Amino acid sequence: MDIQNPKFICRDVRVHYGDFEALHGIDIDIADRGVTAFIGPSGCGKSTFLRTFNRMNDTIDGARVSGTVTMDGQDIYDKGLDPVLLRARVGMVFQKPNPFPKSIYDNVAYGPKIHGMTTSKAEMDALVERSLRRAGLWDEVKDRLKIAGTGLSGGQQQRLVIARAIAVNPEVILMDEPASALDPIATAKLEALIQELKERYCIIIVTHSMAQAARVSDKTAFFYMGELIEYDATEKIFTNPGDSRTQDYITGRTG
Ligand SMILES: Nc1ncnc2c1ncn2[C@@H]1O[C@H](COP(=O)(O)OP(=O)(O)OP(=O)(O)O)[C@@H](O)[C@H]1O
After folding, report:
1. How many CB atoms lie within 10 A of CB 141?
2. Domain boundaries defined on the chain
3. Is residue 24 helix, strand or coil?
4. What pLDDT does 1 receive?
5. Is 67 left (phi over 0), alpha (psi -120 to 50) or beta?
6. What confidence tens digit (pLDDT) does each residue in 174-199 have?
7. Is 132 helix (H, G, I), strand (E, B) or coil?
8. Phi-psi category of 169—alpha, beta or left, where left has phi over 0 and alpha has psi -120 to 50?
């Protein structure tokens, strides 16, 4: 599909784990604002593909990426590019919330501290507050910023992890099944947050929930056995898919 000013352009992206080719040459452009959902049956390569956008596959033994991925026109696999800086620009939220074993405040302040983003305690306080507000968590935690992040509920922890990602001013947030460990109420809150964040960030979300993809995303990409089968406006994918494999998946016949 045609994307104006894409954030990412991927061409012939392949990922190997040893001799096994998990992705067979993916071409896709990702919009620079809004939510793009990756859907498809278990094992089709969604998480593997998601990890190519911030080079998280580099951290997996035996994983090898080929093809090109550009972000704002720059090759993110360029030897001169520092993956640590890339991961500040392209934040990631995982299936299981993974706050650091530190206070709520320190979880959010950690990244800005490492990147030297503030020069005083007051500036850091303001940055922590702004990030927690943006993640929709401030009101629930403002009186207990010193307690451990791991002491929050699952849904709160997931929003804390999002605040931590936001604190370093990312341009992109990758989410790998972010609601799979949450109850329906926490999931609804997270989805509302995604709706707010999408005005400001490029969000890519992997989800197993068709309903969730339909609710939160603007564009949907359907993957099947390591290939991108269909990519279109979410409404089109869910009401009038062009490929019978997409149709079978969204109607529950495969997966
Ligand atoms: N670290 C790894 N080492 C070897 N093979 C892997 C590794 N990670 C994933 N794979 C394989 O790559 C393929 C794609 O896996 P991936 O986790 O990307 O799929 P997925 O669509 O995200 O699946 P799920 O929906 O179950 O999370 C699978 O065949 C999987 O077994």
Report:
1. 20
2. 8-250
3. strand
4. 84
5. left
6. 999 999 988 999 899 999 999 999 99
7. helix
8. left
**Helix 184-197 × helix 154-166 angle, to 10°:** 20
Report whether 92 contacts 176 (CB < 8 A): yes
pLDDT in tens, 67-87: 999 999 999 999 999 999 999
pLDDT at residue 29 is higher than 80 = yes
Which three-class secondary structure state does DSSP give residue 68?
A: strand
Task: Report d(CA 138, CA 118) in Å as an integer.
Answer: 20
C-alpha 175/C-alpha 177 separation (Å) is 6
Pairing of strands 219-224, 90-93: unpaired
pTM of the model: 0.95
Q: Are 39 and 231 in contact (CB under 8 A)?
A: no
Name the residue of 23, 24, 38, 44 to mutate for ligand 1: max ligand atoms within 8 A of Cβ: 44
Which residues, other chains included, contact 181 with Cβ-Cβ below 8 Å and sequence gap of 6+? 95, 96, 97, 154, 158
- Residue in 14, 23, 47 to alter for ligand 1 test, most ligand atoms within 8 A of Cβ: 47
The C-alpha angle with vertex 33 and arms to 31 and 38, in degrees rounded to 5, equals 55
- Indicate the CATH number for domain 8-250: 3.40.50.300
Tell which atom from ligand 1 comes closest to the C-alpha of 18.
4
pLDDT above 90 covers a percentage of the chain that reads 95
Q: How far apart are CA 200 and CA 166, in angstroms?
A: 11
